[in-house]
């Protein structure tokens, strides 16, 4: 690793970090003692020491956010959009530096790190346009001289809990929309990637300062599970948007549900590509391999299962084995490499454990997995992407392992393939590779894929921000980023105005005094 991390941090304006940080103010959070260490999975080096927020810091941030909301909510939405536009421009200026930092702290390839920052830029552009399109419907009242319509108001504080695998983009999907809708945000990033979060906070802070926006519109809290629990149980945060494992999502959903708050959950996936007898196999290969090994299999949209028609099964398996043989694993900042490290050694242990479990259930590995050792792999986080032939109902196949383990399953009929694709607890992303229109349409129909995302001739990962992003079943049901996902960040109000000189009641009720 010869990237000069210090010069990148200088470029991003990151000098020191504290646990709690509001836009417009200096670093806060003096009361904390505990620290959090961020190690790069690329070379194992300690790259950041962040202080962990204490309850007093949390209360300070809540107070700042509550007071900022009073000002931010009355700024016209297009003016809020203008500030988000400037944030997008600041990201353009910092794309290389932030993308490199993402790659170094999280371990994804530089191309993917830059791609993640591009998603941030794109969602800002989307949000700017949306700031003039927060439309409500108007209805015809059943009463004479009455007007009825609905409008959308901001909720207040939006709590954003994000995961390590998209350490900056997922925050921005939530923040850009929440901000133009008139909300303020409190962001708790993953404990594994605090440095990229601090860098983002610096970038957005400068934009807010330049626009004289009230302190505390965007807030960052570095903390562990305890901070997450403070947020999920806090009635002062009407919406919690959480990305992460299904286990975490169940805890968040239960806590927020118990106080009748709103939650937007984007949780685990167990995504499959159906490779039909009518597939273009060369194209399918690219989709399958990128989906399975991209981000070292650590996207919630990663391809975990290939459901392959029996007539092309052997041929496609051979293609896969050859392609895996050519994969270059190593420093993700070196653009010659395809696959970087897993996030940490716990993830490596989970990878090994899943391989063991798969073998114990009868899985047959056609490309073996292993942990790489030697000079270039000193962090201990580099693993070999592997492929196993399995049955869909293996316990391990039903489970999302955040690692590059690809399962192969054979099918005979499309109905069977769709049943296999849907036959897991998760429901995020899915795809079919086929040049047959009937097959494609059946896959997309009501009796087809049960996932939030269903693609034809595209892999399962790499969704564009313009579509609503999220999934069904144990994926949590939330939708983020494009389409009308903005509605989750607002409250709907139905307004009826009577401009007659009588007071007729609805439903024909007579009430004379
Ligand atoms: C995630 O892994 O949590 O569709 C998000 C994709 C990316 C986002 C993934 N645009 O693969």
Automatic annotation (TrEMBL):
Ranges for domain Aldehyde dehydrogenase: 31-494
GO molecular function, one term: aldehyde dehydrogenase (NAD+) activity
Enzyme class: oxidoreductase
Entry superkingdom: Bacteria
Enzyme active site: 266
PROSITE patterns, per the entry: ALDEHYDE_DEHYDR_GLU
UniProt cross-references to InterPro entries, sorted A to Z: Ald_DH/histidinol_DH, Ald_DH_C, Ald_DH_CS_GLU, Ald_DH_N, Aldehyde_DH_dom, ALDH7A1-like
A Pfam family it matches: Aldedh
EC assignment: 1.2.1.3
Keywords assigned: NAD, Oxidoreductase
Keyword NAD listed: yes
SUPFAM superfamilies: ALDH-like
Heme among keywords: no
Family: Belongs to the aldehyde dehydrogenase family.
Subunit structure: Homotetramer.
Identification of the protein by name: aldehyde dehydrogenase (NAD(+))
Organism in which the protein naturally occurs: Pedobacter chinensis
